[in-house]
Amino acid sequence: MIIILLFCLCLAAKNYEVYGSMSNFSKIEDLELEEQLKAINKPPVKSIQTEFGRIVDCIDINKQLAFDHPLLKNHKIQLKFSFQDTQTNTKSHDRSGYSKIGLDDKDLCPKGTIPVQRTTKDDLIRAKRLSNNFGTLTKFDRGSHFAGIRIRGRIFFGVKGNLDVYNPPVDDHQMSSAYIYVSTGESSIPVPNHMFIHAGWQAYPGMSGDKLTHFFVEWVRNIIQHTGCTNMLCSGFVQTSQKIYVGAPVANVSSYGGPQFTMSLNLTQDPATKNWWLKAQDMDVGYFPASLFSNKLDFAMKAGWTGHTQFFLDGPSPPMGSGILPDGNPLHSCYISKMYFKDRFRNDRAPLKDQMLVYADNRRCYDAKYYGFVDNNLERVMMFGGPGGNCGL
């Protein structure tokens, strides 16, 4: 039962405000949900009521849900990235401020614990409803659209960038996101051994239960069999941060023509352990263990930065980014700046123009353009996005 639950949660579940009710659930199913909640929600050392109306529990770092995964049964937790990353400091975060993701400094979890958003019965109901539709970013069907940049002709050991964060208007059958990624597949055609890691922001009410933008991570070991996981509501990602938790709502987002807020992300493979470490806002968040991929993600064949939208029922595609096509103005168009990839020595390399594949699968609705240098505070910039609509195939 726990394995079935974890599978469902890997396919969905993040935040709150329920879409639908429990009226179709029997008493037996309701009891099963209660048992699943007991298995998912580990005993807290401390609980925190957040400004978003959700409870975050401080869980013993060694008892987090990640270690329920069968591939992590004998995993020894790595508390710190072993390689000193001294390259291209992103702390200047362009002209913008950092989006707030995670707990306030006054509410940090105690040492030896990590913050985990408490799973509710409504989260499980949404997970069950989505499990037949595999409602995560890993379902690339006719309802998906992309606009971004990937690098070609190399192998990669990491990727990083500053993501401009927006809150595009979406309904519960739509999703809009932006993320950095690494992948074992050179093409976008799904194959059984196609593995990847995503990290970024997304707005998807059908999963989260609200219309906020959320910080998310996602991994897939086998894209055909859908063996993967989203956030901490299923096992896989090992969190080490006392402050930032995956699935967290973003407190401040950019506005058209107004203040801009970014999410600085850095995904790098540790040369000693082969674990893939994630930094956000210049802080270690945690890592994807090498054993999660059966040690077959020693390097990536593809890396990049992208916007992504999806709709799961008939209807229009949602806006991407700010909802504006790239126009060269960072106060108008959503952007990703300070785009770098990691070479085998974990040094930052700026992609050359002839190494970049700039793509948009439907330019009627979305586009991406590389502008490079915009001003002294904004460099290596891609702008992407668009209004969506009836994009067709």
TrEMBL record:
Tagged with keyword Oxidoreductase: no
Domain Neprosin PEP catalytic stretches: 137-392
Domain of life: Eukaryota
Pfam families: Neprosin, Neprosin_AP
Keywords on record: Signal
InterPro entries: Glutamic_endopeptidase (IPR053168), Neprosin (IPR004314), Neprosin_propep (IPR025521)
Alphabetized PANTHER family for the sequence: PROTEIN, PUTATIVE (DUF239)-RELATED, PROTEIN, PUTATIVE (DUF239)-RELATED-RELATED
Protein name, per record: DUF239 domain protein
